[in-house]
Amino acid sequence: MAKLIITYTKSAIGYNERQKATIKALGLQKLNQSVEHDDTPVIRGMVRKVEHLVSVEEVR
User: Fold this and answer.
1) What range defines the domain where residue 45 resides?
2) Are 46 and 24 in contact (CB under 8 A)?
3) Half-sphere exposure at residue 7, Cβ-oriented, CA atoms within 13 angstroms
């Protein structure tokens, strides 16, 4: 199964609480922090909601 590396690139200050909660649920706490997740529809949906705050890289 493919993996996604998600990097927190822009602060969530000034954005609504749901987007901040999504960042936290992805396991991101500090700027420029990266986490690795399986490429599932759930994770893709979460990334889609905060795509303006994160960058995503696919790893095979």
Assistant:
1) 3-59
2) no
3) 6
Full-model pTM = 0.94
Q: How many domains does the chain have?
A: 1
What is the CATH number for 33?
A: 3.30.1390.20
Q: What is the pLDDT of residues 6-60, one digit of tens each?
A: 999 999 999 999 999 999 999 999 999 999 999 999 999 999 999 999 999 999 8
Q: How far apart are CA 4 and CA 42, in angstroms?
A: 12
DSSP-assigned letters across all residues of 20-57? HHHHHHTT--STT-EEEEE--HHHHHHHHHTTTTEEEE
Report d(CA 55, CA 9) in Å as an integer: 7
